[in-house]
Amino acid sequence: GSWLPSALLGGTQVGWFGVGVAMFAIPVHKATGIDTNTLILVSGLLMTATVYFGISALMVLSAIAVPAIALLGGYSVVEAVNSVGGIRELQQVQPTEPLDFSMALAM
Q1: How far, in Å, CA of 104 to CA of 75, rounded?
Q2: DSSP classification of residue 9
Q3: How far is CA 14 from CA 8, 35, 66, 76, 94, in A?
Q4: What is the model's pLDDT at position 47?
Q5: 14 partner at 20 to 30 Å CA-CA among 49, 50, 56, 81?
Q6: Does position 34 have pLDDT exceeding 90, yes or no?
Q7: What residue ranges do the domains of the chain occupy?
Q8: Are 44 and 21 in contact (CB under 8 A)?
Q9: Whole-prediction pTM value?
Q10: What is the pLDDT of residues 51-103, one digit of tens each?
């Protein structure tokens, strides 16, 4: 009786692992030009290593990842603002149609 929920849970976890690895590998490939398959293999092995070694590996990973996310996120914001001509140009953007409540709520 429990094989179906177990199979569904296992399948979704494997799928989500693949999504997570790809969400890392594709942007890194675009930024660095490193082969996507190599990035997927290496990042998948690193993610698996954190599971094998447990919380101590997660602590090491988070000590690297959290500052990297903050720095790269800040860099992305600066690049996005500069791509439209700076903060003044960004403030001049006028929407073509009003934002309805359901869309605002979803955002």
Answers
A1: 26
A2: H
A3: 10, 22, 24, 30, 43
A4: 87
A5: 56
A6: yes
A7: 1-53, 54-107
A8: yes
A9: 0.59
A10: 889 888 889 888 998 999 999 999 999 999 999 999 999 899 888 999 999 99
